[in-house]
Amino acid sequence: MDNQQTIYDIPVTLMDGSISFLKPFEGQVLLIVNVASRCGFTPQYAQLEELYRDYQSKGVSVLGFPCDQFMHQEPGSNEQIKAFAESCYRVTFPLFAKIDVKGDQQCPLYAYIQNHLQKKPLKFIPWNFSKFLVDQKGNILRQYTPISSFGTLRKAIDSLLVYTPQN
Questions:
Q1: Phi and psi of 17, rounded to 5°?
Q2: Known catalytic residue: 88?
Q3: pLDDT, tens digit, for every residue of 105-148?
Q4: Does residue 166 sit within a domain?
Q5: Backbone angles phi, psi at 106, to 5 degrees
Q6: Quick check: is 43 in a domain?
Q7: Choosing from 39, 67, 88, 107, which is the catalytic residue?
Q8: What percent of the chain has pLDDT above 90?
Q9: 22 domain-assigned
Q10: Are 32 and 63 in contact (CB under 8 A)?
Q11: How far apart, in whole angstroms, are the C-alpha atoms of residue 84 and residue 31?
């Protein structure tokens, strides 16, 4: 896995099954989230979308990765997941194909995150709607649990967007 240089070089699968990379998001602040449609935290889709709409023009993207590893809370197909998120929560942030975030079939992105997370968690992925904050240089700064407040997330994002004069 470490033969890849940055998070932007990691292959990710799009909803249509094609393979892509995170290269289009290079230079942005990223919030990577494992999502699920039938979870007690599913209403966070609305808060994630609000955050995305508030910050997208400032160079912040929310990236959703559906996962069915926690109590079978994401049983649908990629098409069903996308339709649910768009119709129920008006999600416009990028959603990727359903993945495993842990275990033997862990996707390459989450393996990379696990190996490069700067502040190590007590438990890597405790549940759906775990979030990872990535800075503009691709450093995985911190993990936020599903119960972390969106106020805390916004403060962390704001701290990364502080204007610094060019020399």
A1: 90, -10
A2: no
A3: 999 999 999 999 887 766 778 899 999 999 999 999 999 999 99
A4: no
A5: -55, 130
A6: yes
A7: 39
A8: 87
A9: no
A10: yes
A11: 21
Q: How far apart are CA 156 and CA 104, in angstroms?
A: 32
Domain span at 117: 7-14+33-158
**Contact criterion met (CB below 8 Å) for 102 and 78:** no
pLDDT for position 163? 60
The structure's pTM equals 0.92
Kindly state whether residue 19 falls inside one of the protein's structural domains. Answer: no
Q: How far apart are CA 4 and CA 20, in angstroms?
A: 14
User: Which structure tokens are listed for 95?
Assistant: 């959603």
Please check the confidence at residue 92 and state whether its pLDDT lies above 50. Answer: yes
CATH of the domain at 95: 3.40.30.10
pLDDT digits (tens, 9 = 90+) for 56-80: 999 999 999 999 999 999 999 999 9
Spell out the alpha helix ranges (H) of the chain: 44-55, 78-89, 108-116, 150-160
> How many distinct structural domains can be found in the chain?
1
User: What's at 16, amino acid-wise?
Assistant: D
Taking the C-alpha atoms of residue 16 and residue 55, their distance in angstroms, rounded to an integer, is: 26
